[in-house]
Amino acid sequence: MGTVTRALATVDIQRDLNYxxxxxxxxxxxxxxxxxxxxxxxxxxxxxxxxxxxxxCFAWVPQTINLPLIAHDLNLVVENLSMCNITVTIAFxxxxxxxxxxxxxxxxxxxxxxxWATVETKTGRRRMMNIAGISRKIxxxxxxxxxxxxxxxxxxxxxxxxxxxxxxxFHGYFPYDVTISPNFERTVFGQAIAMICATTIYSTxxxxxxxxxxxxxGQLSNLKxxxxxxxxxDKNNLHMKLKxxxxxxxxxxxxxxxxxxxxxxxxxxxxxxxxxxxxxxxxQGIMSLEEELEQYMIFQLVFLSLxxxxxxxxxxxxxxxxxxxxxxxxxxxxxxxxxxxxSLPPKDARLLLIIMCRSVSSPLKLTAGKFxxxxxxxxxxxxxxxxxxxxxxxxVRG
Length: 398
Prior knowledge:
Shape: elongated
Strand content: under 5%
Oligomer: single chain
Helix content: over 70%
Mean pLDDT: 84
């Protein structure tokens, strides 16, 4: 009977985990970056080379080489950087860092599975299910938004193909004649695959990190619930429960700090890239209003709006989870103070000071290269900075 119960519990845990990150796992395995231990003799460790080389050969290298050749034309430079180059550079950094951190991230996934297996209360499990539901909705929404921007750009290029000298998806330098068949078809197909790969990596890494941080926030919420009930334990179980709470708090801190240490450099690249992307995309939108091809203007504005919104949403995700993580972390000290500690023996009540001091002195945070915290305030500062750069670009063009 006990074996059957354990088997059913395992099935439930796997079902909950699949519900939480099935989308990320499916897409990341296609890209070869799903967290696992990397070994030279493991074929799955080399799957990442296919999307990596596709993006490198058909998007990043041709556009980077082409950049000095178009330096005299501000509009072409802006298009080069905003449409593909910066996005691909960010996707590259994400793929490399995520692939290199595979073993550490796999350990985090094991910690998540352990949290699902050891949750003790129905309220705690319900809270974790709510967090999983939020993570799943965020994943589906962000991935769909990024793919929608891709589709919109593809349709935009098809609309412009007759009125534009460039028949490819992106301007770029290729060491062969792309105007003849089958070179043209192969190049367009390669660029399309590169767009899909870059979009997949760009969006799934962001939603995966969001899932990890939201899970940590859920564990902190469960910890606060345990603190509020600390007075209800008898003397025999009180020390054991206090020990579990302190250990759980330290465990969640280490979980969050692992995420921060793995990705703070990548997040710095993303934040700086997002500022430039928002600046250039908005500048392109302003320029499209002045174009003579008014019949195509609506298509370009739709794409630019989708693209800009997707960049803003991805950045907003980090600012939201960073704000929530810091808030949940510092709330631990408030919860410890607001619980009925005065009902505890003085010797036991003093143990809560360890948790309170840890929460106040070193709150959990998500940073961009250790330079700044991701908060809603940072998000507003990024938008203001991008707006300032837009005015500079407009003045230079004028």
